[in-house]
Design goal:
Chain lengths: 447, 517
């Protein structure tokens, strides 16, 4: 049953007391983050509940700065005596290490200018979602999946309905205190089907939102999961070839995620980034414009301040293919001698094209629509990548047979310049909000 | 925010790669008087300090079964993880994490209810138990009358507990590795080293009256090297891990870590991405066990099979490989990262034959799937921590030695590749497609290793690839790497091993000229 979702300030008190204890134990400065998370996950499989999980968890993370030294510790053991000993140990731990002249809390100037825009990250009706509602949505998803044409091939349908209420406090001893509450609701369905050759292809669909009323129905998710999976029947390895690649908006996030590490201050300073020294240069195709936008109401990456307390700002990362900024936290900002931006991404806001996935596919004579990646990796230093892909062959502007067990390889510094089109369809269920992306002349390995 | 529902169902393995950092001073964050190196113990020893009593456990199990569940268990955990990181020549960051909590599980048929709490008091535990109980809807069942233990083998050779290790001992190891790495080659530009040690105690008690405590140590070191030559940079990472103590880091092992890290980085200056397409692939002895983990291990986890969604769901008892192919998953290798004294349901851990003489033999079971199939649990019920319900997971997965010789295998390939260092892999359970990512290897041309290769993904289909394993050497090696397996949002430590093996044909995702389609 849902309960105790009113504002509770006990975690703030714990964060504040951690700071006080740390100072008493000899820390010069300290930063404490305290959280409480209520999570419910309901799983339904083939006509009955499979798993019900429900919990409220809490803990603290504490960074201590003592004698120009630094340590960060976290615990779920909040018994007062245990916490006192724990923090004392943290200070002793820090003092046993080497000095680090770059380690300090952020400059308080960086806390200033916090936006007051209402991000609406918490659903005031969170409490109204009951076990009965979750079960109803999960059942709807299964029913819809099994109503798709060809569903006699379905072996199993699993659906999940989950929700989370998170409350976080961040207190820095040099003058920052921040609070954040947010909710998330997710619905997903996974379908397995039996293929003639004995394979049992699976695919899934999911959606989520900050507000329950914005989550698509179980029926929509279930139907899409059923359709996606049944379309995989008869998938074969395609021929090795160089051709166009369309990546759908759900899958394209994986490609973009490989840029995030190399964009970080740590990678730049540690000489582990193929983007080192590339600021102001044309690294991507001209159609790539990405803004880091923390202020999109109800979005998954929205925030007023980052995890160091630095006031969030909207800023360009890539403009018309030119690299404009990195993700730099206060520590690596000092090491690099530059002003920190933020060490982590918020939402990525893309300059969109005017066509959706299907219209983009219609413009391709010969290519592959990638709907999912399998394994593979990307070398953040050299930019070389090699990834397993599955999807559908495109012939004459139409989707043809399903393909799988194929691979693409390339180097990001060349690959992103071959981007020829951006869709109008940002994937709303992820903070990366990637649209459909189209690349030319991609080398596919298959038969 | 993660795409949680989309991502958390993936199954994969990856090499340890810690980005943040830190450590322990004598008795810092200590477990206190934890039993060490004695094997699982009966009854409530360690957890009595948190006020855990037999009555508390029985009351909790009673609440858990109050709505008619078939079975219930409680899983207490107290764990301290320490990390120390060296960057830019100094060990100047450390981290410690303490986890304390208890999870309550109720099982009704194949259905699971789960709740957990960080407060180890009667009221909080009862609330978690009633949450878990809601999976069942019926009358109350009885809690156990008495609690008994099983299993007493110890597989963690720990003479000195991690909390008794002085920080200077760890700093010496880190600084020594840094100096040796820079001294080994002038091209070295950056060195990052992470030292992790962990100690944990778990207590499992269930409604069959079983109760067991186990002390579980873990340690790993990873070394990452960035080198520069003629304006070009390359990077590689090597690591070692074990359920052991600081004596694991003997001079020979540390020297080998440095020489491996240097060799595997410097060779990249001469390496190319191999040609794309289907070709014979020779897998070197050791970490190539990643192929088994992805091609068959996950698909043999019995939860996928009882749900009928694995490509192996109807293949038990059928031939799937040549008769010299034998594949094992076991938890009994002393000090291995994937070793466990008991699984996270309190079951004994042994050896499980996945493939015996080429025939698909036994699934990896937790207690739910074992009951479903009417067999004994295999000791594969594992979980990331008290926040999670257990499920079937691998431990240490490897292939037994075969009739061939390594040199004979390499000499047999006219045009193909040889792989011997990997970073990660993934599998689709039902379709059977799997991948693993090669960091280092060589082209094989006319039976000889020639040009080094790097950064290439290999993709195949599990049963098809096992059929195509046509040579197995006699040089089985269990890898010491820090492998972590992810499934359904939970990470657990695993090991893997392999003799040198030839796969007659598999798709290599290279970069060179592709045929025009």
């Amino acid at each position: 049953m849902s309960k105790t979702t009113n504002t509770t300030n006990d975690m703030l008190a714990i964060a504040q007391s951690c700071i006080e204890i740390a100072k008493k134990k000899g820390a010069k400065e300290a930063s404490a983050g305290a959280y409480r998370v209520r999570n419910v996950d309901f799983q339904w499989r083939d006509g009955k509940p499979e798993k019900v999980e429900e919990s409220t968890t809490r803990g603290v993370q504490l960074a201590v700065f003592a004698d120009e030294r630094y340590a960060v510790v976290s615990t779920s053991d909040l018994r007062p005596d245990a916490l006192e000993t724990f923090i004392g140990d943290a200070v002793v731990l820090a003092k046993s290490l080497a000095k680090d002249p770059y380690r300090a809390l952020p400059d308080p100037e960086l806390y200033k200018g916090q936006s007051s825009v209402d991000l609406a990250l918490e659903d005031p009706k969170y409490d109204t979602v009951t076990p009965e509602i979750r079960q109803k949505i999960a059942k709807e998803a299964e029913t819809a999946a099994r109503a798709v044409k060809g569903s006699e091939a379905i072996l199993s349908v699993t659906s999940n309905v989950s929700d989370t209420l998170t409350e976080r406090f961040l207190v820095n001893s040099n003058g920052f205190s921040g609070k954040r509450r947010d909710t998330t609701f997710f619905v997903s369905a996974q379908v397995s089907v039996k293929d003639k050759d004995g394979r049992r292809p699976e695919d899934y669909s999911y959606a989520g939102a900050r507000h329950f009323s914005e989550v698509p129905s179980g029926a929509i998710i279930g139907r899409e999961a059923g359709e996606r999976t049944l379309a995989r029947l008869g998938a074969k390895k395609g021929d090795s070839a160089a051709m166009a690649m369309v990546i759908d908006n759900r899958a394209s996030g994986r490609m973009v995620s490989f840029l995030m590490g190399p964009l970080s201050g740590a990678s730049i300073q540690q000489k582990r980034s193929f983007l080192e020294g590339k600021l102001g240069q044309q690294v991507f195709g001209e159609k790539v414009t990405i803004i880091d936008d923390p202020f999109i109401p109800r979005a998954f990456g929205s925030r007023h301040f980052d995890n160091e307390g630095i006031a969030a700002k909207k800023r360009p990362v890539v403009e018309a293919g030119v690299l404009e900024s990195y993700y730099i936290d206060s520590y690596y900002g000092k090491k690099l001698g530059v002003t920190p931006t933020s060490g982590s991404a918020s939402n990525l806001s893309w300059k969109l094209g005017d066509k959706n996935r299907d219209a983009l596919v219609a413009g391709i004579q010969d290519g592959i629509l990638v709907t999912g990646f399998l394994g593979g990796n990307s070398n953040g230093l050299t930019g070389d990548f090699s990834l397993g892909v599955q999807g559908f062959r495109i012939r004459g502007g139409k989707l043809a047979e399903p393909v799988g067990e194929m691979n693409i390889s390339g180097n990001h510094l060349e690959f992103w310049k071959t981007l020829v089109a951006v869709g109008n369809d940002p994937f709303p269920y992820s903070a990366m909000r990637t649209p459909t992306l189209v690349f030319d002349g991609v080398s596919f390995a298959g038969v | 925010m993660q795409d949680r529902n989309g991502i958390n169902r993936r199954t994969f393995v990856q090499a340890t790669a810690t980005t943040a950092a830190a450590l322990a001073v004598t008795d810092l964050f200590g477990l206190g008087k934890a039993l060490a190196g004695t094997g699982p113990a009966e009854g409530i020893g360690y957890f009595s300090r948190f006020g855990v009593t037999e009555k508390l456990i029985k009351d909790t199990l009673g609440a858990a079964l109050s709505r008619g569940g078939d079975y219930a268990d409680v899983f207490f955990q107290h764990r301290i993880l320490n990390n120390m990181t060296l960057e830019d020549g100094a060990v100047n960051r450390a981290s410690a994490n303490v986890a304390l909590g208890v999870g309550v599980r109720v099982v009704k048929g194949d259905q699971t209810g789960y709740g957990f709490t960080e407060d180890l008091n009667a009221e909080a535990m009862k609330r978690a138990a009633l949450t878990a109980a809601s999976i069942a809807q019926g009358g109350s069942k009885n809690a156990p009358k008495r609690l008994n233990v099983t299993g007493k083998d110890n597989r963690y050779p720990v003479k000195v507990k991690w909390e008794d290790v002085r920080p200077t001992q760890k700093l010496t190891i880190l600084n020594g590795l840094n100096e040796k790495t820079f001294a080994a080659d002038k091209r070295v530009q950056k060195v990052n080293i992470n030292f992790m040690d962990g100690s944990g105690v778990i207590l499992i008690a269930d409604s069959n009256g079983r109760i067991v405590e186990d002390f579980q140590p873990m340690t790993s070191v990873y070394l990452s090297v960035v080198a520069e030559q003629n304006g070009r940079k390359e990077n590689n990472t090597v690591n070692v891990a074990a359920r052991s103590d600081i004596e694991f880091y003997n001079p020979a092992r540390l020297d080998k870590l440095v020489s491996d890290g240097i060799a595997k980085t410097m060779i990249l200056f001469d390496a190319v991405q191999p040609p794309a397409g289907e070709m014979p692939v020779v897998l070197g002895a050791g970490s190539s066990g990643i192929l088994l983990h992805e091609a068959i291990g996950h698909g043999m986890e019995a939860d996928f099979n009882r749900k009928n969604v694995s490509i192996y769901s109807d293949k038990i008892g059928k031939p799937i490989a040549k008769d010299f192919v034998n594949i094992i998953d076991e938890g009994t290798q002393v000090a291995a990262r994937g070793a466990i004294n008991v699984d996270d349901e309190g079951n004994n851990v042994g050896k499980t034959m996945l493939v015996e003489k080429g025939i698909l033999s036994t699934y990896l079971h937790d207690s739910i799937s074992a009951k479903h199939y009417g067999v004994k649990p295999t000791g594969n019920g594992r979980r990331q921590g008290y926040e999670y319900a257990p499920m079937p997971r691998m431990r240490s997965t490897y292939m037994l030695p075969g009739p061939h010789k390594r040199d004979e295998i390499i000499a047999s390939v006219k045009k193909g590749i040889y792989c011997d260092h990997f970073s990660n892999g993934q599998v689709n359970i039902g379709a059977g497609d799997f991948t693993f990512f090669v960091k280092n290897g060589f082209l094989i041309e006319d039976g000889k290793l020639t040009t080094p290769i790097k950064d290439v993904n290999i993709i195949g289909n599990g049963p098809k690839v096992l059929e195509l394993v046509d040579m197995v050497a006699d040089d089985l090696k269990i890898d010491e790497g820090g492998w972590t397996c992810g499934k359904d949002g939970q990470s657990v430590p695993v090991s893997q091993g392999m003799p040198t093996v030839r796969v007659a044909s598999i798709t290599v995702g290279g970069r060179s000229e592709a045929k025009k389609g």
